[in-house]
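Hey,
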Amino acid sequence: MFKSLKNIQGAFALTRIYLILITVISISLGGYAIYESYKFAEMQREKIYVLDGGTSLLMALSQDVQQNRVAEARSHVKRFHEHFFTISPDKEAIEHHIEYALALAGKEALEKYQRMREEGFYDRIIAAGINCEIRIDSVLIDESTYPFKARLFGKTSVVRSSNITYRNLETECELVNCSRSDNNPHGFMIERWRILDNSDISVINR
């Protein structure tokens, strides 16, 4: 009788072990299945489908937006300054560049443009046949905080028939996210923009 009870207890113990093993294996398999499902969903999210001529779907891979955000921020700052500081003695060309620049920046850039226009800066450029050009040396982006902080270093040149004036250019601004558009493909808006240095470096007579 005691031997029979011992056998029954051993059978129960063995059954418990089996149940524990089955439970652990089931939980492990379930966790693995969930992980793989999440991984597959992430991979599918990184795919986009393009309608080719309205007839077929072509699959293309898209990168995580955040991977290129700093590069986009740097390009955004460059584009704004290139359009704002590239000035030719042509009214339509000036308006085209300024319109594009102001689509990338906030009120500080608009106020700067309005002051320059009211002071007759653009009229003098047109009357004297002056070309203003910019060369960007570097753009530093601080991505540790939001809004991103940016600082640009470069040089501008004022090309007259008699001489060329070279100037330092150093500016700073903040970048905030906004909706992307044809005029603002990077989805940034420049805020708190200000010129830190625009002093003359040299004048070369022609």
